[in-house]
Amino acid sequence: MQRVKRRLAAIMCADVAQYSRLMERDEDGTLDRLKAYRSVMSSLTEGHNGRIVNTWGDAVIIEFSSVTEAVQCAVDIQNELSLKNAELPDLNRMEFRIGINLGDVMVEGDDIYGDGVNVAARLQELAPRGGIMLSQSVYDQVKTRMALGFDPLGPQHVKNVTDPVETYAVRLGGRNAPQEGGAPRDGDKAEPKGTMPPPDWERDTQVLANGFEQARRWLRAQPRKVRGCVFMIAFFFVLNLLTSGLGTLWFVWPSLPFGLMLVWHLLVGRKEKPVVNPSQQGE
Q1: Bridge partners of residue 5, in order along the sequence
Q2: Are residues 104 and 189 in the same domain?
Q3: Domain end call among 199, 231, 249
Q4: Are residues 230 and 130 in the same domain?
Q5: Do residues 51 and 167 both lie within one domain?
Q6: Is residue 16 in a domain?
Q7: Does the pTM exceed 0.70?
Q8: Calculated CA dihedral for residues 89, 91, 92, 97, nearest 10 degrees
Q9: 266 pLDDT tier (thresholds 50, 70, 90)
Q10: DSSP secondary structure string for all residues of 192-214
Q11: CB 122 within 8 A of CB 165
């Protein structure tokens, strides 16, 4: 009896979220889009030294000898497809869910089998639309090697796997970011809880602008001496940045007298300001 060949491999499983709904709405358009998106995935897979093992329906299995290449390929796939989806109406967008596992697989010809593949497939089912889900074995290999953020989602019980699988979501910006809370949409898998929302740059920029505006109004309402102290401190700070950067903060020393004067005007000067008795205003 011939012995079964085995090897350690990074396995990526991907499928289309709400594929049945997309087909129901527009079969021809969905098939054309699937072919186009698979072409993108095939090109990126080849660029990361991966091998497409199998495709059926809307799903695909890809094998990598390097777990780092597998994760980077998944990130590139989601980013590239996100750009393509941005050009489409919401109802026509085709978003893939990706799961990646590092494990032992059985090899038979060009096909691979075993728990290494099964876990990757289950992780793909847990992944959010446009997102990437990693197993503990993958996370341990890439956490210090890749400039990515990861959200630990804890152990997950998955079908046909005895032990719970520790899961991690890769942080991706924009529409690819994992969504927290809310009920799953009809026909879609429930998305994992505990993921971090992406930075809201528009909101943060608005908060910063509001802060500057409030500071400007406050400064305009201050006496000339206070504005002068603030100006001199800001002048030395900018000069520090232009000449030395933030490596050496020498602006503190020439700014110190102006800082003391500012404190005096804000705290002591106001207390000493005479209060006019309303009954004397007419005198």
Answers
A1: 107
A2: yes
A3: 199
A4: no
A5: yes
A6: yes
A7: no
A8: 120
A9: confident
A10: PSSPPPPP-HHHHHHHHHHHHHH
A11: yes
193 plus 208 within the same structural domain: no
d(CA 16, CA 142): 25
- A 10 A CB-CB count for 174 gives 13
Single-letter amino acid, residue 188: D
Retrieve residue 187's tokens: 């026909």
List Cβ neighbours of 240 (8 Å cut-off, separation of 6 or more).
248, 249, 250, 251
Token match 């793909």: residue? Answer: 124
For residues 101 and 213, membership in a common domain is answered with no
Nearest to 73 by CA among 109, 100, 35: 100
Q: Is 165:53 a contact under the CB 8 Å cutoff?
A: no
Domain span at 239: 202-272
Q: How many other CB atoms are found less than 10 A from the CB of residue 187?
A: 12
Buried/exposed code over 35-56 (b: 16+ C-beta within 10 A; e: otherwise): eebbeebeebbeebebebbeee
What is the predicted pLDDT for the residue at 208? 62
Which of the residue ranges 40-49, 182-191, 210-219 has the most confident prediction, judged by mean pLDDT?
40-49
155 and 98 in a single domain? The answer is yes
CATH number at residue 40: 3.30.70.1230
- Report phi then psi at 11, rounded to 5: -110, 130
If one counts the domains in the chain, the total is 2
- Judge whether 249 lies within some domain: yes
β 111-113/132-135 pair status: unpaired
- Nearest Cα to 273, choosing from 228, 223, 220? 223
